[in-house]
């Protein structure tokens, strides 16, 4: 019998991922809030800042059926403590707070501990530092790339997050070596205006997939202090794309192959063009399946004895 699991995300921009999660048996993935309008966000922020009552009126329809679930997973966000406490008043089922991003970019675990939750992270160092439970990241085997001609050697998409100068320098280095790039860098909360550069608008994940399909390789630039794997390596192995990354630790993963993954700061930058022009080496199907969302769910259920 399938376990009934509710997976809550912080905003409606994750609809694409929720649709993919909902393809798996026994799970209902949905947004926490009914609306992500500017007005709704403003009111919610004021409620959070001044510790006012009333946040629950913004919750979506999942609140009506809490008791039918055996496990609720909350993707960590600023409202996670409030949501967990609301749920705990209604039911005693297991609640897992899941860090899909480094702790440094989210609220600290101490704020989550008072709501009787189990806390998980994809980042081993964060787990050691904050006493969290480790579980690897995941992707979705059901996602397919659109069919497009390859027009770029390296594609990057992501928010600035303090990396803008490093990203632009890499872009310059790549292009000096006759490597065709497409960088889609959006603003983040700490972004500042950069001379001679205009930030891009945010795009949907479907548009990201279209750009990946037009590229030989994906650029992965991890944030300082991040030890867990980002989504970019997942996209690379699931779509058989080459990966260029500054993550030195990636060579320890079971999918690592030097023909498929170029490590900045370790591999010779003068070999990058040759790397991009060489064939991709297929990865064992069982290794890829290990990172599928369905396997991630099975690990959660096994570890939690749900």
Structural write-up:
The chain has 306 residues and is of the alpha/beta class. The protein has helices spanning 15-21, 38-49, 80-90, 124-130, 164-176, 205-213, 231-239, 272-277, 285-289, 293-304, and strands spanning 5-9, 27-31, 71-75, 94-99, 118-121, 133-134, 152-159, 181-186, 215-220, 242-245, 261-263. Strands 2-1-3-4-5-6 form a 6-stranded parallel sheet. The N and C termini lie close together (11 Å). 29% of the residues are buried. It is globular and about 60 Å long.
Report the CATH architecture of the largest domain: 3-Layer(aba) Sandwich
* Proportion in β-strands: 15-25%
Number of domains: 2
Strand order of the largest sheet: 2-1-3-4-5-6
> Mean of residue pLDDT?
94
What is the CATH class name of the largest domain? Answer: Alpha Beta
Number of strands: 11
Topology of helices and strands:
Elements: E1 5-9, H1 15-21, E2 27-31, H2 38-49, E3 71-75, H3 80-90, E4 94-99, E5 118-121, H4 124-130, E6 133-134, E7 152-159, H5 164-176, E8 181-186, H6 205-213, E9 215-220, H7 231-239, E10 242-245, E11 261-263, H8 272-277, H9 285-289, H10 293-304
Parallel strand pairs: 1-2, 1-3, 3-4, 4-5, 5-6, 7-8, 7-9, 9-10, 10-11
Briefly say what this structure is:
This protein has ten helices and eleven strands.
Keywords for this structure?
11 strands, Rossmann fold, about 300 residues, 5-stranded parallel beta sheet, 10 helices, alpha/beta, 2 domains
